[in-house]
Amino acid sequence: MGDSTTASRPGKGTVFVRSEICKGCSFCVDFCPTDCLSFSTEFNPKGYHFPVLSAPEACTGCDLCGLYCPDFAIYGERWKDIDERKAKGRPQPVPEPAAPAPVKPAWGTLVPTDPRGVLTGLHFMDGDHATCEGAIAAGCRFAAGYPITPSTEVVERFAARIPVVGGLFIQMEDELASSIAVQGAAWGGKKTLSVTSGPGFSLMMEHIGLAAVTETPGVWVNVQRGGPSTGLPTLPGQADMMQAKWGSHGDYEIIALVPNSPQECFDLMIKAFNLSEVYRCPVMFMMDEVVGHMVERVEIPPAERIQVVPRRLTTKPKGEYLPFATTSEDLVPEMTVAGAGHRIHVTGLTHDERGYPAMNAAAQDKMVTRLVRKIRDHADALVDVREHYLDDAEIVVVSYGITSRIAKSAVDDARARGLRVGHLRLRIVWPFPAARIRALCQHAKAFLVPELNMGQVVLEIERVVAGQAKVIGIPHAGGSVHEPDAILKKIIEATQ
User: In Å, how far are 180, 205, 251, 309 from 175, measured between CA atoms?
Assistant: First the structure.
């Protein structure tokens, strides 16, 4: 809506509107201190009137509209700042290293995905929508959810898209119903998705434990927001990282991926579904509100270039199949489809290979040890990190999610000052890349860990480093993101 190239520019600033995502809440119009905004007479694709700059001469670019907008559909900027930014130019980002080759599953083969679910082409979309497209492209055909900010857009899009693909979305009465419905659908033969945030993630924890003990594959998306409790529904946080791993009671292992862009929301969602099939465990997709709502270019490749792991269904005769039987070489059991004729018993109780309750210490030891080992024994294969400047780094900044983008900016600035600083970005946080961290201890004297929480993943780094180097947390309570200068300041302090 604003144009910094216009010769005559009224007012001290302007506003930019993403009309297609506006929900007509009127916060921007109501809180504008100069009354320069009003609603259009047109409707956007969601059926809402959206704001327009009706009095441009009164606009100061104060960005109160952006501050109050719960959907990041509008922001203001001063002409002075726009001109300075253009004169300065955008720094050319250092390209990330090429992604490592995908890990081939321990069994089976990767196959091209169903083309019905793939919107091949270039898109500009937010992370929530890209997550939905990644899930559908990965073969997800059932989702259950309950609306909760800032994750609602994932299932809104799924509900609109899935009928034409050949699947089903159900809005459940609450998050508990959602997190159990997806498990029933998984045993019915579908790849499944559940989506939530904050308080909803807490409610799902009992059923995530059930999925772990019954080895039910599926992906749980948590678009993190500020907490605890209701907290900050429309603002970012990263304080659910430990809950993702330890939230349900008992011993078990999960896998948790953390994207930092809409493109990665698409790409890593496919990986999340593949991993859930390979290891038959709950996979957590730990986004944050900023990544969920930021709009960037997303490239969706042709279906034949998207490789997915099909469910490994047993070929054993009905009388010989044991739903939780494994071998010493393969700790992941084969599945069947409920109703296909095999005898199955699925319970949250400690169980034997038949799935029948086995209430004794020996059965507990056998079952829990296998649940843990099937992930831990493959921890090295599950490492997924991106590295910058680590060959000579004395200071290593470790980050994930939206914080990694700010940390990378601070690291680039530090390198420009001649400081030997590197950046390690985690795309899979659980299982934790302990071996890589230990290797970096050979030349790193300090690890800096910025997070949108009061200190969570930093504790895991302290455990792994075990006193071989300093570990310095850079906490942030959430609601906004770190300033690059705050991270840069800590980098400079660590070099002294």
Answer: 9, 10, 23, 28
pLDDT per residue as tens digits for the range 108-135:
578 999 999 999 999 999 999 999 999 9
H or E segment to which residue 156 belongs = helix 152-165
* 315 secondary structure, DSSP code: -
**Tens digit of each residue's pLDDT (9 = 90 or more) over 223-265:** 999 999 999 999 999 999 999 999 999 999 999 999 999 999 9
Q: How far is CA 357 from CA 278, 317, 347, 350, in A?
A: 25, 23, 7, 6
Nearest by Cα to 468 from 379, 396, 383: 396
Q: In the chain, where are the structural domains located?
A: 13-88, 111-308, 385-495
Residue appearing with tokens 């130019």: 89
Read off the pLDDT of residues 465-487 as tens digits, 9 standing for 90 and up.
Answer: 999 999 999 999 999 999 999 99
What residues pair up with 77 in beta bridges, in sequence order?
14
Model-level pTM?
A: 0.81
φ and ψ at 134, to 5 degrees?
Answer: -65, -40
The gap between the terminal CA atoms of the chain, to the nearest Å, is: 47
Q: Report DSSP state, residue 21.
A: G
Mean pLDDT of the chain: 92
Which tokens go with 446? Answer: 């300090």
Looking at CATH, the fold of the domain delimited by 13-88 is given as Alpha-Beta Plaits (3.30.70)
Peptide bond into 100 cis (omega under 30): no
**CATH number of the domain at 111-308, please?**
3.40.50.970
CATH number of the 385-495 domain: 3.40.50.920
**Fold agreement (13-88, 385-495):** no
